[in-house]
Amino acid sequence: MLRLPPFTYLAPKNLSEAIRLFQEHGTDAMFVAGGTDLYPNMKRRQFEPKVVIGLRQLPELRQFTAAHGEGFRIGASLTLTQLANHALVRAEHPALATAAGSVSTPQLRNMGTYGGNLLLDTRCNYYNQTYFWRKSIGFCMKKDGDICLVAPGSPRCWAASSTDTAPVTIALDARVRLLGVNGERVMAARELYNDDGIAYLKKAPDEILTEVIIPPAEGLKSVYLKLRRRGAFDFPILGVAVALRQAADGTVRYAKIVMAAVQSYPLECHAAEQMLIGQKLTPDLIEAVAQAAYKPAKPLDNTDMAHGYRKKMSRLYVSRALEMLAGERRE
């Protein structure tokens, strides 16, 4: 049985106190909300904080507000179950509800939070193992080692971004609010991520993701499709989020295609998106767009199933998502 190492748990009463506690303890501290990623990583000695600062009960992080013409403001500590089941989310942005509802199992969705899934640690077959397993192979670059065992000649870590909600959040053109020692800042969700398996976030360690700001749907349609070995529990070995806004005549005015688990960050397929703008969805266009999205997808042998298969599925899943939005396919 894997056991948690000794640590001190602090329960601040508000965000200001949480930031102050982090200042006091510095790099010895980490924030936690649902804990479904942090605590297993602590058991495997991938994260080793001496102090854990709990955010789950802070009321500022558990709010959901919706105003006509202003979209949604979703607190980062809203659970994945709450997000998946929220009537307004299901009606306005079904892809987000689908993505949240596809994470892990009901028990873990009841604990895991929206913000926690957006900040999910990158994953790899050589990294997500026990300390003793990793020690037996000399560790990997992401923790305690010097070499990326997926690509030994590479100077960087290739652990994969495996968050389900991030591709959809980016596709919806959402923004995130961060609060830290140096104050508050708001950035586009796409700007939160780096293409680096280790330094995968642009969020500073002292910053708390407080809320996600999603603009009004205004006719936006969205789909999220997830590939995994089992129908539940598993992380994505491919996730595809597609969002489209069309004119009355069917012409595409806004298009976003974002993939999970094919890079160390959520991959935006810009060339494929541009092919859709100003066009109407036809079988030939869908095939061409799926091919364009397939090209930048570069899965490696760092998660479940063969990377060649995952690469091929990226084309198929983009095609399926577009067919669903065109009304030509049902899942």
What would you say the CATH architecture of the largest domain is?
2-Layer Sandwich
User: Please, how many helices?
Assistant: 12
Largest sheet: 5 strands, antiparallel
> What is the strand tally?
12
- End-to-end C-alpha gap: 40 Å
- Global geometry: globular
Which features would summarize this protein structure in a list?
Uridine Diphospho-n-acetylenolpyruvylglucosamine Reductase, domain 2, four-stranded antiparallel β-sheet, five-stranded antiparallel β-sheet, 331 residues, alpha+beta
Explain the layout of strands and helices.
Blueprint: E1 8-10, H1 15-25, E2 29-32, H2 38-43, E3 51-54, E4 64-67, E5 71-75, H3 80-85, H4 87-92, H5 94-102, H6 106-111, H7 114-118, H8 131-136, H9 165-171, E6 175-180, E7 183-188, E8 208-214, E9 221-227, E10 238-246, E11 252-260, E12 267-268, H10 270-276, H11 283-294, H12 307-325
Parallel strand pairs: 1-3, 2-3
Antiparallel strand pairs: 4-5, 5-8, 6-7, 6-8, 9-10, 10-11, 11-12
Question: What would your notes on this structure say?
Answer:
With 331 residues, the chain is an alpha+beta fold. The chain has helices at residues 15-25, 38-43, 80-85, 87-92, 94-102, 106-111, 114-118, 131-136, 165-171, 270-276, 283-294, 307-325, and strands spanning 8-10, 29-32, 51-54, 64-67, 71-75, 175-180, 183-188, 208-214, 221-227, 238-246, 252-260, 267-268. The strands form three sheets. A five-stranded antiparallel beta sheet has the order 4-5-8-6-7, with no helix packed on it. A four-stranded antiparallel beta sheet has the order 9-10-11-12, sandwiched between helices. A hairpin with a 3-residue loop joins strand 4 and strand 5 (71-75). The radius of gyration is 20 Å and the shape is globular. The termini are far apart.
